[in-house]
Q: What sequence folds into this?
């Protein structure tokens, strides 16, 4: 059964962004109910939302169609999440003080499900100690927040107050809905390619997009882990709530990961680390003169192998393997050689698997068995991998 999310929209110029979010939640198969404050209807027409949800949008508390049903109580009874997006300073103040003077605030007070608030307002209204006190009060009452971002605000001021990006909102909605099976666990994930410079304009790299590693980082966060993401250069947005360490070279990745390793419960090396780097990086651009040039390449440290050497008892180490032939045999050898607990082996030559796409096909190899995972999104595969890893711990 699809999860039910009640979205409350309040009077903010960012109300229009809720329209896209609602449309995307519906595409993701959520059951979405919407309530709007009177001021929100000045920014967007409820009909616009109604056309997306195919359900009545509630504004007036006393506009109950069926006298037998008290809507503001009934609608939240079986809700999985109540999210106020965007939340104005005024509504936040009302919610923090238990006001129930319209459909949205009454339903919020009546709701016993997880609650989430994404503020959007002028920077000075946001920074005002009264607003901050109200936010703090709601946090103390277990309400989750998605922080606004800095930028040019509708009023012309520059500062923190813009509604969070949709990707961050979706991530926090997912977080709010996911059971916390990785609570108190430290997980380090490496992702993306590395780049090894040849001269100031050229470098050696590979086709890794980082999508699998970023999907793992997001899923681990949603499952409640304390996530550290060490990433080579990618075009992806940094997930909302991870400790992010951007690196460029394999050597930087090694020097970033090794000191962090001892405090991790689980380490997943999904990065496509370059095996070699240039002996010398030219200071000036190399001009073409001869028909060929020689590059002296030296072997980089194998980070996974080094992690395997210092692996603590109870620590779980997971590697990835990209192969074009003898997938299972090569992956099994990597499992043993690098002292890993699990290898996720990519079927690189199969359509729908591998580097750039949003899907993957893998075999997951442990010392006990091999499990096959057919075509699925990297997002759902991330949850499968994390579930297997947590089960290994028990
Ligand atoms: N890896 C690593 N450090 C490297 C190279 C690879 O930590 N210098 C890790 C990758 O993150 C991955 C695993 O090792 O988890 C397997 O990487 P892969 O490139 O498939 O294998 P290699 O060990 O490099 O062996 P080969 O290239 O010979 O297949």
A:
């Amino acid at each position: 059964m699809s999860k039910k999310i009640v979205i409350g929209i309040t009077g903010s110029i960012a109300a229009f962004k809720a329209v896209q979010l609602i449309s995307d939640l519906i595409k993701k198969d959520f059951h979405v109910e919407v309530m709007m404050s009177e001021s929100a209807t000045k920014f967007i027409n409820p009909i616009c939302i109604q056309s997306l949800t195919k359900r009545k949008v509630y504004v007036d508390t006393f506009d109950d169609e069926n006298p037998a049903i008290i809507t503001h109580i009934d609608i939240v009874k079986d809700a999985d999440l109540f999210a106020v997006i965007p939340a104005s300073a005024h509504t936040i103040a009302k919610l923090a003080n238990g006001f129930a003077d319209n459909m949205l605030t009454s339903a919020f007070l009546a709701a016993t499900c997880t609650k989430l608030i994404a503020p959007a307002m002028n920077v000075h209204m946001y920074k005002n100690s009264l607003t901050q006190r109200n936010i703090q009060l709601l946090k103390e009452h277990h309400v989750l927040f998605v922080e606004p971002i800095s930028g040019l605000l509708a009023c012309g001021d520059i500062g923190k107050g813009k509604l969070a990006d949709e990707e961050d909102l979706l991530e926090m909605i997912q977080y709010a809905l996911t059971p916390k099976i990785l609570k108190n666990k430290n997980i380090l994930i490496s992702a993306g390619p590395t780049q090894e410079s040849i001269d100031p304009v050229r470098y050696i790299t590979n086709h890794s997009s980082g999508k699998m590693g970023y999907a793992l980082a997001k899923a681990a966060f949603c499952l409640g882990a304390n996530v550290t993401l060490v990433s080579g250069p990618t075009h992806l947005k940094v997930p909302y709530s991870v400790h992010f360490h951007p690196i460029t070279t394999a050597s930087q990745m090694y020097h970033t990961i090794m000191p962090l390793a001892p405090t991790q419960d689980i380490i997943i090396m999904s990065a496509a680390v370059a095996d070699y780097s240039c002996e010398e990086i030219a200071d000036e651009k190399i001009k073409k003169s001869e028909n060929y040039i020689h590059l002296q390449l030296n072997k980089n440290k194998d980070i996974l192998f080094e992690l395997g050497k210092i692996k603590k008892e109870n620590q779980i180490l997971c590697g990835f393997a990209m192969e074009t032939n003898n997938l299972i045999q090569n992956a099994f050898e990597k499992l043993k050689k690098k002292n890993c607990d699990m290898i996720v082996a990519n079927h690189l030559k199969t359509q729908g698997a591998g580097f750039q796409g949003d899907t993957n096909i893998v075999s997951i190899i442990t010392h006990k068995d091999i499990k096959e995972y057919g075509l699925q999104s990297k997002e759902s595969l991330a949850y499968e991998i994390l579930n297997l890893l947590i089960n290994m711990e028990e």
